[in-house]
Design goal:
The complex is a heterodimer of chains A (326) and B (439).
Chain A: H1 3-12, H2 17-35, H3 43-61, H4 65-87, H5 92-111, H6 116-119, H7 130-134, E1 142-143, E2 150-151, H8 152-177, H9 179-189, H10 191-196, H11 201-224, H12 236-249, H13 256-281, H14 292-310
Helix pairs in contact in A: 1-13, 2-8, 2-11, 2-12, 2-13, 3-4, 3-5, 3-11, 4-11, 8-9, 8-11, 9-11, 12-13, 12-14
Chain B: H1 2-26, E1 45-50, E2 52-53, E3 56-57, E4 62-66, E5 72-76, E6 82-87, E7 91-97, E8 115-120, E9 125-127, H2 147-182, H3 189-206, H4 211-239, H5 244-266, E10 278-281, E11 284-287, H6 288-310, H7 312-322, H8 324-329, H9 334-360, H10 366-381, H11 386-402, H12 412-426
Parallel strand pairs in B: 1-9
Antiparallel strand pairs in B: 1-6, 2-3, 4-5, 4-7, 7-8, 10-11
Helix pairs in contact in B: 1-6, 2-6, 2-7, 2-9, 2-10, 2-11, 3-4, 3-5, 3-9, 3-10, 4-9, 6-7, 6-9, 7-9, 10-11, 10-12, 11-12
Classes of the chains: A mainly alpha (326), B alpha+beta (439).
Chain lengths: 326, 439
C-alpha cells in the first residue's frame, strides 16, 4: 500500500478543476443564500445549464468557445427569470421546493431519449472542448511539482478555472461592499424593513438569483472542460454537496466557499484512499471496495447534519451575520 | 362542525364496510384469479400476441424470440391470429416479427418497430403487439382510430394513475402531518418509503413470511422508526431551538446517510417484490396486489380522515397544526401530539412504502426518487393540510400516468413537477390551502 500516493492524490485535489468548479458554484449559492437568504435548492440546474449550454452550442451549432460561454450565460439569465418570477414572491420554503423541482425537470429534459440528437440522452456529450485546448498558451511539457505535477492541458484547465474563481471572488467582494450588497443583506435580515424603506425587494432578489445563477453556470462550464457531460451528474445530490461546501466554509463569507470546496474534496479523496487501503490490507473486513463510495456519502451526510446543528456559521463565519430563518 | 362529524361518521361506516370486504378478499387471494380460468402455474413463462390487419387475423406469420443465454424459438400465428412461445424463465427477450412472412400489402405501422425487447419479471405471460397498417378498412381519418384500443390505453393509464395517486397519498399525508405540526420540510421522508419497501422485501422474499404479515410487521417497524427519529433527532433539535431551515438541511443530511446505508445493505439493484396474478379491471389487466393495495389505501385514507375529524387526538392534532402555542394554552401537550404524529406518519408512510414497492418494485433510492412527487402533492393540495395532500397526490398520480399518452415516458415525472409550479403561480396556497399572504 502506497500511502504517499493516497496523500498525494488528496493534496492534488486542492487545485483540481473540480474543486474550482464546486467553489465557484458555492460562491454563487453564497450570493443566493448567504447574502440574500434565498433558499435555492436548484444550483445543480444552473450547473447543468452551463454544461449543456456550452456543449450543445459547440457541438450542434458550431459556435466558438467564447460564443458558447455567452450563450450559456444568456440561458442562465433566462432560467433565473423563469424560476424567479413565480417563486420569489412566495415564502422561502416554497422557493426551496420549486427550485429543487425545476432542477429535476431540467435534468429529466436533458436526459430524455426524445432529445437524444441534441443532448445525447442518458449517454451525454463529449468532444466539445477541442477549441478550449487549442487556445492553450502553455507549450507541451510537465509543470509544477509533486503532488501537483500536471501536463500542459491539465495546467491550462486549472489556470482557467481558478482565474474565474478569483474574478468571481473579487466581483462578489465588491458587490457586497456596495450599496446593492447592503440592501441585499438587509433583505436577508428583515425583508419587511427593507420593503418599508421603499426598496423593491422582488427586483433585488431577482438580481441576486441571476448573479448567483450565472456563477453556477460558469461553474458548470469549468466542471465539464476536463470531462464529458453526463446527465447523471446533475442530480439533487450535487446541489446538496454545494450546500455542504458553502456551509462548511461559511455561507456569508467571501473565502468560505473556496476553502470549503478544498476541504470537501481533500477529505473525500482522503477517506476514499484510506478506506481503499485498509480494505486492501484486510484491516477492514466488513466492507467491500465497491461499498466505499456509499460510505463517503454517509460521511458527507453526517458532516452536513453536524455542521448545520453545531456550527451553522461555518469555519469562517460570524454567528451574528448568519441567521437561519424561514 | 356537526355536519363535518356526520360526514366523518358516514365515511367511517363506509370505511369499515370496505375494510372487512377487502380483507375478506385478501386472505384467500390465490383463489381469486380471473374467473373460470385455472390459476396460472407460476413456473410457466411465455411470450405471445395476436397479429391483425385491421379486424382480420393473419395466419402463418412468424415471430422469432431470442433469449439472453442462447435461447431461440420461433412462433407462428394460428388460425385465430394468435401466437405463443414458451420461454425458459425470467429475463429479457428480443422479439422480432419476420416482416417477409407478412402477406403482400400488409406492413408494420412503424417500419422501425419490427424488433422489440420485452422483459419478463413480474408477469409470467407477456403480450407483444406489432400494429400493422390497416388495409381492410380504407381511408381512416386521422384521429378516427379504432375506439376500443384507444379507450383501453386511456383507461389503463387512468387506473394506474389512480392507483399511484392513492399509494402516494398515504406517504404524502405523513409528510403533510409532520409539516403541519412541526413546520419541518422533511427531506428524509422518502427514506421511510424505501424502508417500508425494503423491509417488506426482507420479510416476504428473504425470510419467506406471508405478504400480509410482512406488510403488518413492516408498518409497525416503520412507525417505530418514526418514533425513534423524533426522539433521537427532531425533539432534541426543537429543544435546542434550532431554526427550521437548519432542520430542513439536517433532514437532507439524514436522507443521504440513510439512503447510502440502504445501498450498502441491499446493494444498488432493484428488488422485485410484486407477485401473483393479473385481474381484469374494466377490461384492463392489472396486478391483483395493486388492486388490493389501492382498496386498502382508500380504507386507510378514510380512517385517517375519521381520525382527524372525529377523535379527540385527531382534533388535538389539527389544533396543533393550526396554532401550536394556542393549542398548548388550551392544555394540549404539543410534544406528545408531535410524537404521535411521527408514529402515525411512519405507519402511513411504511404501508405506502410496501404498496409502492409492490407497484414500482423496491430499490435503495426509490423513496428519494418519488420524494419530489410527494412534495408536489403536498404543495399542490396546500402545505400542511391532510386532505389537501390526498387531493394533491391523486392529481399528481393521475397526471404522471396520463401524461405518458402525450409526452415521452421518461419525462412523466417532469410533467408532474411542471404542473406543481404552474399551480403555485396561479394559486400559491395550493388547491385546498387557506388563502393567506405567503411571503
Amino acid at each position: 500500500m502506497d500511502w504517499s500516493l493516497v496523500f498525494g492524490n488528496a493534496a492534488a485535489e486542492l487545485i483540481s478543476p473540480t474543486t474550482a468548479a464546486y467553489a465557484l458554484a458555492a460562491i454563487g449559492l453564497a450570493v443566493h443564500f448567504g447574502y440574500t437568504g434565498l433558499l435555492n435548492f436548484g444550483q445543480a440546474a444552473f450547473m447543468a445549464i452551463g454544461a449543456y449550454g456550452f456543449a450543445v452550442s459547440v457541438l450542434n451549432f458550431g459556435l466558438s468557445f467564447w460564443q458558447a460561454i455567452a450563450v450559456s450565460m444568456i440561458l442562465s439569465v433566462l432560467f433565473a427569470l423563469i424560476l424567479g418570477i413565480p417563486t420569489l414572491r412566495l415564502r422561502s420554503d416554497y422557493l426551496a421546493i420549486v427550485t429543487i423541482a425545476a432542477a429535476e425537470i431540467l435534468r429529466y429534459v436533458v436526459s430524455t431519449t426524445s432529445l437524444k440528437d441534441l443532448t445525447g440522452g442518458s449517454s451525454g456529450l463529449s468532444g466539445f472542448a477541442t477549441e478550449f485546448y487549442a487556445i492553450n498558451p502553455f507549450p507541451t511539457g510537465n509543470y509544477l511539482f509533486w503532488p501537483f505535477d500536471v501536463t500542459e492541458k491539465e495546467l491550462w484547465v486549472r489556470v482557467f478555472g481558478w482565474s474565474i474563481v478569483a474574478l468571481a471572488t473579487i466581483l462578489v467582494l465588491l458587490m457586497m461592499r456596495s450599496p446593492w450588497g447592503r440592501v441585499v443583506k438587509g433583505i436577508r435580515e428583515d425583508e419587511d424593513a427593507v420593503r418599508s424603506l421603499g426598496k423593491n425587494v422582488y427586483a433585488y432578489k431577482m438580481q441576486s438569483l441571476i448573479l448567483g445563477g450565472a456563477l453556477g453556470t460558469l461553474a458548470g462550464i469549468v466542471f465539464v472542460l476536463p470531462r464529458a457531460v453526463q446527465p447523471g451528474n446533475y442530480v439533487t445530490g450535487l446541489t446538496f454537496f454545494i450546500w455542504t461546501i458553502m456551509l462548511l466554509g461559511g455561507a456569508a463569507t467571501v473565502f468560505g466557499p473556496i476553502v470549503g470546496s478544498m476541504i470537501f474534496w481533500v477529505l473525500l479523496s482522503l477517506t476514499e484512499g484510506v478506506l481503499q487501503g485498509l480494505v486492501n490490507m484486510g484491516v477492514i473486513t466488513f466492507l467491500s471496495t465497491d461499498q466505499i463510495g456509499p460510505v463517503r456519502f454517509i460521511l458527507i451526510g453526517l458532516g452536513l447534519m453536524a455542521l448545520v446543528v453545531f456550527r451553522p456559521q461555518g469555519i469562517f463565519g460570524n454567528k451574528k451575520e448568519l441567521q437561519f430563518n424561514v | 362542525m356537526s355536519q363535518l362529524l356526520i360526514t366523518a361518521t358516514k365515511k367511517f361506516a363506509v370505511a369499515l364496510g370496505l375494510f372487512t370486504f377487502l380483507f375478506g378478499l385478501l386472505v384467500p387471494a390465490s383463489a381469486f384469479a380471473v374467473e373460470g380460468e385455472p390459476v396460472p402455474d407460476s413456473n410457466v413463462f411465455s411470450i405471445g400476441g395476436i397479429i391483425k390487419d385491421g379486424d382480420v387475423v393473419l395466419e402463418g406469420i412468424e415471430i422469432s424470440v431470442l433469449g439472453a443465454d442462447g435461447f431461440e424459438a420461433v412462433g407462428t400465428t394460428g388460425a385465430d391470429g394468435r401466437w405463443s412461445v414458451p420461454v425458459p424463465g425470467k429475463g429479457e427477450y428480443q422479439v422480432t416479427l419476420r416482416v417477409e412472412t407478412l402477406p403482400t400489402g400488409a406492413s408494420l405501422r412503424d417500419p422501425d418497430r419490427s424488433q422489440k425487447t420485452v422483459k419478463i419479471d413480474v408477469v409470467n405471460t407477456v403480450n407483444v403487439l406489432f400494429p400493422l397498417n390497416d388495409t381492410t378498412t380504407p381511408a381512416v381519418k386521422p384521429g378516427d382510430k379504432p375506439a376500443t384500443a384507444e379507450t383501453n390505453v386511456f383507461l389503463g393509464r387512468l387506473i394506474a394513475g389512480v392507483n399511484l395517486g392513492i399509494l402516494l397519498a398515504m406517504a404524502a399525508i405523513g409528510l403533510s402531518l409532520i409539516y403541519g405540526t412541526t413546520a419541518l420540510n422533511n427531506f428524509a421522508h422518502g427514506e421511510m418509503v424505501t424502508l417500508g419497501a425494503l423491509l417488506a422485501f426482507t420479510f416476504n422474499k428473504i425470510l419467506g413470511i406471508d405478504l400480509l404479515l410482512s406488510a403488518l410487521l413492516t408498518t409497525i417497524l416503520v412507525a417505530a422508526s418514526g418514533w425513534f427519529q423524533d426522539a433521537a433527532i427532531w425533539r432534541p433539535l426543537r429543544k435546542r431551538r434550532v431554526g427550521l431551515t437548519q432542520m430542513m438541511i439536517v433532514s437532507i443530511g439524514l436522507s443521504l446517510v440513510v439512503r447510502y446505508i440502504f445501498q450498502i445493505i441491499y446493494g444498488g439493484d432493484t428488488k422485485v417484490l410484486s407477485q401473483g396474478e393479473i385481474w381484469d379491471v374494466f377490461g384492463v389487466p392489472t396486478q391483483a396486489v395493486n388492486v388490493i393495495s389501492a382498496g386498502v389505501g382508500v380504507v386507510i385514507l378514510l380512517l385517517v380522515a375519521a381520525f382527524l375529524t372525529k377523535t379527540r387526538l385527531g382534533k388535538a392534532t389539527r389544533a396543533v397544526a393550526d396554532n401550536a402555542s394556542l393549542a398548548a394554552a388550551t392544555g394540549i401537550d404539543v410534544e406528545r401530539i408531535i410524537r404521535i404524529v411521527w408514529v402515525i406518519a411512519g405507519a402511513l408512510t411504511g404501508i405506502s412504502g410496501v404498496m409502492l414497492g409492490l407497484f414500482l418494485q423496491a430499490s435503495w433510492d426509490m423513496g428519494f426518487s418519488i420524494l419530489l412527487l410527494m412534495f408536489a402533492a403536498v404543495t399542490l393540495g396546500g402545505l400542511g393540510t391532510a386532505f389537501g395532500a390526498t387531493v394533491g397526490a391523486l392529481v399528481i398520480g393521475i397526471f404522471v400516468e396520463m401524461s405518458t399518452l402525450v409526452i415521452p415516458t421518461d419525462l412523466k415525472f417532469a410533467g408532474a413537477l411542471v404542473v406543481m409550479i404552474l399551480v403555485l403561480l396561479i394559486r400559491p396556497q395550493g388547491i385546498l390551502g387557506k388563502a393567506q399572504r405567503i411571503g
